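Please, structure for the following, as tokens.
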Amino acid sequence: MAFSDAEHTAMEQALQLACRGVRGANPLVGAVILRPSGDVLATGWHRGAGTPHAEADALASAAAAGTDVRGATMVVTLEPCNHTGRTGPCSQAILRAGLARVVYGAADTNDDAAGGAAALAAAGIDAEGGLLAGASRELNHRWAVATAARRPFLTVKTAQTLDGRTAAADGTSQWITSPEARADAQDLRLRADAILAGTGTVQADDPRLTARDPDGSDAVQQPLRVVMGHTPVPGGARVRGADGRFLHLKTHDPAVVLAELYDRGVRHLMVEGGGTVAGAFLRAGLADELLAYTAPALLGAGTPAFAGLGIGSMAQIQRWRWDQAGGGAAVPVGPDLRLHLEPLPENDLRVRT
């Protein structure tokens, strides 16, 4: 495989662009279009499920600037897709644009989307992969784990104190974090296909689990509201709603929940509460992303953010790493901090029992 210095530089830029996106049902991807001389013509990145893929975003940026990309090279972190989902196949968009060469990092491991490189090559496009492939794979290592397991990508979100409490000793929990943090979390709900809480949280807080617009009104597109646990959900519980987008899964097994939701078309699940449910997914090694909204406050006692992890010694400690995607690893939100973490790649195949 022979790659030019300009292509190496462009791939490094594409990896940085990819981190501007948000994690979820789709991988993080960045793209850079180069002139034959090596100069940058346009850039793009994927902003989340339902938005243009990085390749299409870069092509749209070039078109908006009136830039002719015929005969140019596209450098993209992931093999262009070859299927129609919420958007069209990137391989066909590249062909229509008249690009002469495509350099990609990692091959797409998603069976539903793979084959873009072969389709491009069959159409006469010079398609070559493997440039900084390791960095591209690591960028989306947890997305690849979820995709291979045919389960939703799982985001665990908490609102907690500095000492990791989500409620006081008397059970009161509203509100630990600020209005700014709660508004910021609504963006997460809008991106998810489903939001899950345990029956204990439903009984204690009577949450709606709806996605809301900045003005506080319910968003037009709502995630599926899921409650996990054997305790019956009261008929008047707000989580039931009136739109039919409510599901009660009478199980304590996280794997059963994920399998059921995947079969229902859920590709991004957000777990909001409480500590027992969050701990169950973490203990099973199924959480792909952790977002902890942390208030500068202490309770000293009360409900832990993560319960039942089964950790009895330092040898069993769960270590995560800071995630720079989607805005950064630690972002001030009002008086609070949004901490963004992902599991270490070496723990991808480790399931705690």
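The chain is about 25% helix and 25% strand. The mean pLDDT is 92.
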